[in-house]
Amino acid sequence: MDVKDSNGTLLAEGDSVTVIKDLKVKGGSSNLKRGTLIKKIHITDDEDAVECRVDGSTLVLKTCFLKKA
């Protein structure tokens, strides 16, 4: 399964990515700002989403809002 970021670059387990758009976090009080670096992503069964940890919370983010760092 090929997981690609917003630019079409292949993503792999453990890669670092950058958020390209301000995102609201459902159920959380904080938002993810554009330019936030996220390390050690986890590839999921869905090729349009990755799992990651941000500030102690586990989030699932759509790959269309991410670019490889």
Structural features, described:
There is one protein chain. This protein has one domain: SH3 Domains (SH3 type barrels), CATH 2.30.30.40. It has 69 residues and is mostly beta strands. The protein has no helices and 10 strands.
Summarize the structure.
By secondary structure, the protein is mainly β. It contains no helices and ten strands. The strands form four sheets. A three-stranded antiparallel sheet has the order 6-3-10, with no helix packed on it. Strands 7-8-9 form a three-stranded antiparallel sheet, with no helix packed on it.
Q: What's the overall geometry?
A: globular
What are the low-pLDDT stretches, counting only 5+ consecutive residues below 50?
none
The CATH superfamily is SH3 Domains
* Total DSSP E strands: 10
Order of strands across the main sheet: 6-3-10
Query: What is the CATH topology descriptor?
Result: SH3 type barrels
- The helix tally amounts to 0
Which percent bin holds the helix content? under 10%
Structural class: mainly beta
Terminal Cα span:
21 Å
| Tally of discrete structural domains | 1
Key terms:
single chain; 69 residues; mainly beta; SH3 type barrels
